[in-house]
Amino acid sequence: GNSVTQMEGPVTLSEEAFLTINCTYTATGYPSLFWYVQYPGEGLQLLLKATKADDKGSNKGFEATYRKETTSFHLEKGSVQVSDSAVYFCALRVTGANSKLTFGKGITLSVRP
Amino acid sequence: DVKVTQSSRYLVKRTGEKVFLECVQDMDHENMFWYRQDPGLGLRLIYFSYDVKMKEKGDIPEGYSVSREKKERFSLILESASTNQTSMYLCASSITGGMNQPQHFGDGTRLSIL
Questions:
Q1: What's the N-to-C CA distance of chain B in angstroms?
Q2: Is a pLDDT exceeding 70 seen at residue B99?
Q3: Which of B35, B34, B74, B33 is nearest to B52 (CA)?
Q4: Going by C-beta distance under 8 Å and a sequence separation of 6 or more, which residues neighbour residue A7?
Q5: Are B21 and B109 in contact (CB under 8 A)?
Q6: Of B58, B96, B108, which is closest to A43 when you measure between CB atoms?
Q7: Disulfide check for B2: which of A64, A75, B27, B53 has CB 3.0–4.6 Å away?
Q8: Phi, psi angles (nearest 5°) of residue A82
Q9: Beta bridge partners of B49
Q10: Closest chain A residue by Cα to residue B108
Q11: Under an 8 Å CB criterion, which residues of B touch A?
Q12: How confident is the model at residue A21 (pLDDT cuts 50, 70, 90)?
């Protein structure tokens, strides 16, 4: 089946620190990959996506590269801000899945001033 | 911008009650979804619908049902609420066509069953 594994959290960083959040996947087929972010008190919103191997998704200073050889889609940001404090979810979708997403468990990021 | 609206942000109900959670989207999306979100478990798909009057079970449908009589509205029903259904419920919608179409989420309903 399809599954997404995220690193264990929570993660606490100081402002301007470098961020990496690991995400690996297994999929029956060729998936599209997504990172969603959930700010406090809100629903999820799409942060970035990649639809084929070696694609790099980017948004708001965050980046993630679709690595087929390592089945990974790690999220990175060079300098985090307090406003980046949120829960981050990695997700995938495969062909023929009626637009269903498979989510990881999410990881909470807290950024200290 | 796509707007997905969930009828309540917070809801408190009693064990055994029939509970309705409503979700409306304004972008004519074909697909709609109901998830529950629990700490340490992430998002789990309860039911989804890819057309009016169509529904499919997700990963955890037990104890729930859904209704989609109109394209813009997708209702989640707890037939007889139990305490283990206390959770955050998230509705989402998406357009059909291509694997890179994102899902758009509402702000969630935090449901407590006493």
A1: 37
A2: no
A3: B74
A4: A21, A22, A23, A107
A5: yes
A6: B108
A7: B27
A8: -55, -35
A9: B32
A10: A43
A11: 4, 31, 33, 40-43, 45, 48, 50, 56, 58, 90, 92, 94, 96, 99-108
A12: very high
Q: Contact B42/A104 with Cβ under 8 angstroms?
A: yes
List CB contacts (< 8 A) between A44 and chain B.
43, 90, 92, 103, 105
A97, pLDDT greater than 60: no
Binary contact (A99, B94; C-beta < 8 A) = yes
- Percent share of chain A, pLDDT over 90: 78
First-to-last CA distance in chain A? 41
Q: Which two tokens stand for residue A39?
A: 């700010």
| A-chain residue closest to B106, CA distance | A43
Among B41, B90, B102, beta carbon nearest to A46 = B102
B4/A15 Cα distance (integer angstroms): 32
> Tell me, what's the pLDDT at B85?
97
- Residue A8 to chain B, least CA–CA distance (Å): 9
Q: What is the DSSP letter of B40?
A: T
Phi, psi torsion values for B10, nearest 5 degrees = -135, 140
Distance from B16 to chain A by nearest Cα, in Å?
A: 28
| % of chain B at pLDDT higher than 70 | 95
| pLDDT number for residue B97 | 67
Do the Cβ atoms of A93 and A34 come closer than 8 Å?
A: yes
Pick from A24, A86, A67, A8: which is nearest to A77 by CA?
A: A86
Closest CA to A47 of A73, A72, A24, A29: A73
Structure tokens at A54: 């070696």
